[in-house]
């Protein structure tokens, strides 16, 4: 059975291994300093970024999820943005991704959020099969303007 808990300082090394796997999957290159800043933000009770880790029956870390909240113009309650979701390739398809999403959904509901939403790459078919089961494809297209830094 998969167990999901909020990230703690003691999860750092397990989180880091999954984080590097996530970045590799998306062919992203972040500095070690940014990685450590991200982990510290997740642990900071004053920050709006949250995280959880999934472990299997043996206690091995098999997945992570990060989310944040923000005010919205279309609702009284905040929106919850699921920013990062990663499940170790060896256990994909076993329900860990769905459990991590459900963890975020339950947290968002408990904290008065109006919705949970996320983005994924169009070609990420494995993840999209899961997303199509647990959420609605809104049809929106993502644009961005990098600002450097």
UniProtKB/TrEMBL annotation:
It comes from Microbacterium pygmaeum. It holds the Pfam family Acetyltransf_1. PROSITE patterns: GNAT (PS51186). Residues 2-149 form the N-acetyltransferase domain. It comes from the Bacteria. SUPFAM superfamilies: Acyl-CoA N-acyltransferases (Nat) (SSF55729). InterPro entries: Acyl_CoA_acyltransferase (IPR016181), Diverse_Substrate_AcTransf (IPR051016), GNAT_dom (IPR000182). This is Acetyltransferase (GNAT) family protein. Keywords: Acyltransferase, Transferase. One of its GO terms (molecular function) is N-acetyltransferase activity.
């Amino acid at each position: 059975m998969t167990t999901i808990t909020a990230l703690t300082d003691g999860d750092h090394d397990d989180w880091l291994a999954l984080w590097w796997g996530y970045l590799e999957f998306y062919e992203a290159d972040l500095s070690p300093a940014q990685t450590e800043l991200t982990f510290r933000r997740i642990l900071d009770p004053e920050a709006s970024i949250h995280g959880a880790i999934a472990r299997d029956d043996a206690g091995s870390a098999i997945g992570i999820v990060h989310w944040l909240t923000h005010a919205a113009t279309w609702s009284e309650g905040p929106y919850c943005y699921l920013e990062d979701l990663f499940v170790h390739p060896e256990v994909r398809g076993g329900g860990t991704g769905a459990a991590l999403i459900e963890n975020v959904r339950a947290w968002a509901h408990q904290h008065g959020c109006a919705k949970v939403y996320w983005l994924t790459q169009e070609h990420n078919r494995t993840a999209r099969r899961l997303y199509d089961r647990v959420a609605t494809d809104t049809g929106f297209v993502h644009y961005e303007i990098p600002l450097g830094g």
